[in-house]
Amino acid sequence: MKNDIVRCECVDMAIDGSGIAKCGDLVVFVKEMIKGEIADVRITKEKKSYSYGIIEKLIFPSPERVASDCPIAYKCGGCDFRHISYDCQLQLKKEILANILKPFKVMDIVPDEVHYYYRNKVQIPYREGKMGFYRKYSNDIVEFDDCLIESETANRIIEDLKELLKGFTQAKKIRHILIKQSHDLKEVMLGFIACEKIDLTDIVDTLIEKHPSISSVILNINNKETNVILGDEEILLYGKPYIMDEFHGIKVRISLKSFYQVNYRQMLKLYELIRELSECGEGSRVLDLYCGIGTISLFMAETAKQVTGVEIVKEAVANAKENAKMNRIDNVDFILADASKGMDTYLKDKDIVIVDPPRKGLSAELIDSLISHEIGRIVYVSCNPQTLARDLKLFENAYHIGKIHPVDMFPYTIHCECVVRLDKK
Ligand SMILES: C[S@@+](CC[C@H](N)C(=O)[O-])C[C@H]1O[C@@H](n2cnc3c(N)ncnc32)[C@H](O)[C@@H]1O
User: Fold this and answer.
1) Residues 267 and 365 placed together within one structural domain of the fold
2) pLDDT of residue 232
3) Which of 16, 66, 177, 253 could form a disulfide with 242 if both were Cys (CB 3.0 to 4.6 A apart)?
4) What is the domain count for the chain?
């Protein structure tokens, strides 16, 4: 019953990072409990066949339990594993992935040796004078001084911005702040997302003087009441409408609306892995679906005969085209299209297809097209193991599914990037 206290042993980890604890036949999902731990657990919610609970008293703590180094851990919705040593996080994530992706074989996770201040993009809601992250499963804003997974530069800009916005009369028109930062070229883009045009001159002048790495400031207008953060209209307030980064000797432009992998160190490893698994050779004709600003296409173009990238965001396609031109890579082309449908024309003459979809995974139509065009090799890059598992099952009759290679793109969270190669039977 609710509020009962039961002594449980945590026997497994759930996909949301909570522990799955057992007391006889009772199954309890317990926040922040680690596999192997024994605790007295207070039941907070009862369902038909399981309950939810919180740790009342730890009886046998895991040797991998560590004191959280973040003052807002578990208040904000960011990190799931601040109470677990990094090595153990990797082990537990691998087990969670293996459970979701059964019967496919999951390899050890490629670690991020640094695993602090790794995010190069931060999106912060601003409401009623408060700037911070959403509390988990809520719209409450939790303020912070130093987020341990965002970049240190972003932390300092946010600190200054909080002060500057205190005296700003139009502040309530701001909905979000977006900061992007390039790794190699150390450029920062600052985006203000507001419900209408506002005059940010003084704030921008102060910020660019204090933070010379800011090379782009954009006001984005979004007056729609949806959960899409960015609106259509963009006004350049300072510098260029993009920032520049460089990876593996390739220079890239990144616009406000364009996707860029959030963890640069891990992006390098991910791309090496994709290229290695694809066995892309001099004669290979490659289709890179969901290509963003063309990073994978440009990297593959070094070894391929021809690469075509497909992407739905027009700003990203424009970046991809400019990136090819800037790097004098001429065996690539980029197409603005919805990769979930009508890909038959592009699949016709391809030997290798890379797919890197958003969390919802691939459409049944695209999977059918890939199968019916008898594409020899597919490399599937996924940020959501549940949709990956669903999709791999649809490929299974026609393709040998290789080992799953996880890359820890998002340390301290339950999320993980996975790469898998599929070979036509
Ligand atoms: C996970 S990102 C991968 C981007 C790129 N491969 C990279 O490594 O940077 C997914 C990309 O798919 C794009 N996208 C989302 N839905 C799409 C669709 N239906 N068709 C084409 N691209 C889509 C997004 O805009 C985003 O750029």
Assistant:
1) yes
2) 95
3) 253
4) 3
pLDDT at residue 11 is higher than 90: yes
Give the pLDDT score at 46: 95
Regarding whether 341 and 230 lie in a shared domain, the answer is no
Coil, strand or helix at 62: coil
Does ligand 1 have an atom closer than 6 angstroms to the CB of 219?
A: no
Tell me the one-letter amino acid at 248.
H
> What residue numbers bound the domain in which 385 lies?
263-424
Residue 74: is its pLDDT beyond 90?
A: no
By the 10 Å C-beta count (0-12 exposed, 13-18 middle, 19+ buried), 173 is classed as middle
pLDDT more than 70, % of the chain: 100
Residue 397 has what pLDDT? 97
Q: Whole-model pTM?
A: 0.96
Helix segments in 53-139, DSSP class H: 86-101
Kindly state whether residues 180 and 141 are assigned to the same domain. yes
Q: How many CB atoms lie within 10 A of CB 330?
A: 10
Per-residue three-class SS string for 135-176: ECCCCCEEECCCCCCECHHHHHHHHHHHHHHHCCCCHHHEEE
Q: Ligand 1, atom 15: nearest CA belongs to which residue?
A: 358
Amino acid at 6: V
Is the shortest distance between the CB of 262 and ligand 1 below 6 Å? no
One-letter amino acid of 269: K
Is the CB of 336 within 6 Å of ligand 1?
no
**What are the tens digits of pLDDT across the range 36-50?**
999 999 999 999 999
Compute the distance from residue 355 Cα to the ligand 1 centre, in Å. Answer: 9
Determine the angle formed by the axes of helices 152-166 and 201-210, rounding to 10 degrees: 140
